[in-house]
Amino acid sequence: MPRKQIAQRVSGMIGLVKLSGNEHKFPSQLSGGMQQRVAFARALVVKPDILLLDEPFSNLDEKLRREMEVETRRIQQEIGITTVFVTHNQEEAIVMSDRIAVMKEGRIVEAGPPLEVYNNTQDLYVCTFLGDANLLEGEICEVTDSNTLVRCEGIDLKAPAIVGSGVSGGKVLLAVRPERVKITRRKPAGPQDNCFPARIKDVIYKGPTVTYRVTAGRVTLQAVQTASEPADIPSPGDEVFVSFAATDLIVLKGEKDEQVAN
């Protein structure tokens, strides 16, 4: 390749990863994020058909990792190159992907669009691997065309209609994501699919969000909500109401004591 063409391609790639003005610096003079961009540019400058990124952000701190997720996604979309992104970070996989494949023991367990897999998986391992999930074992009490009534530790829950393959001997395993569980001091107005009183066990303040652990009889649930004013955040021991829609419940295949993701 002529020297002039090489210089043009290198210059274009440096501009793409937003490192213009740093051409004559040594790697030791660059920040961790900038070094990551250099590695990215080196891989792209040869114009590969497919790009493999294997745990590219594992050595970066949380803030820098989030910045690189956005930047890498931008570059990948701008170039339009097929990219295989390998990671053990579930949030990173969801953020970066158009399609996600969850692997277990060397085999693909489930694949599809990230939100579809996250919200609709029926696999116990996939459900617990892709984020937190409240698991609820119950017994089917009534089945209709649109809903199923399930009794979980004395609490009656309205769940989606259950296909025969998801049921074994009248038992069923349900999951609900913590961000789907609503915590209110007063009982919500209007009809609710699932609503019952509970007591706050733990409150974990995380800045923009608050994580609650609540108990209702023998059931313990985790809920994640946007943080409000400190005075509005319930305290341990407070009585509250828990509510979520029937469609928020995921019907899983498997038993609760089977292997779940760590």
Task: Walk me through this protein's architecture.
The chain has 262 residues and is of the alpha+beta class. The longest helix is centred in the first third of the chain and has 18 residues. Helix 1 packs across helix 2 and helix 2 runs parallel beside helix 3. It is elongated and about 75 Å long. 25% of the residues lie in helices and 34% in strands. A 5-stranded antiparallel sheet has the order 7-6-5-8-14, with no helix packed on it. The mean pLDDT is 87. It has 6 helices and 14 strands. The protein has 2 domains: 96 residues, Rossmann fold; 117 residues, OB fold (Dihydrolipoamide Acetyltransferase, E2P).
Question: What's this, in brief?
Answer:
By secondary structure, the protein is an alpha+beta fold.
Structural class: alpha+beta
Major sheet description: 5 strands, antiparallel
- Contiguous uncertain segments of 5+ residues: none
List the domain count as a whole number.
Answer: 2
Q: Shape, please?
A: elongated
Q: What Rg, in angstroms, do the CA atoms define? A: 24 Å
Helix-strand sequence = HHEHEHEEHHEEEEEEEEEE
> Helix count, per DSSP?
6
What's the layout of helices and strands?
Elements: H1 3-16, H2 32-44, E1 50-54, H3 62-79, E2 82-86, H4 90-96, E3 100-104, E4 107-112, H5 114-120, H6 124-129, E5 134-143, E6 147-152, E7 155-160, E8 171-176, E9 182-184, E10 194-205, E11 209-216, E12 219-226, E13 239-244, E14 249-252
Parallel strand pairs: 1-2
Antiparallel strand pairs: 3-4, 5-6, 5-8, 6-7, 8-14, 9-13, 10-11, 10-13, 11-12
Helix pairs in contact: 1-2, 2-3
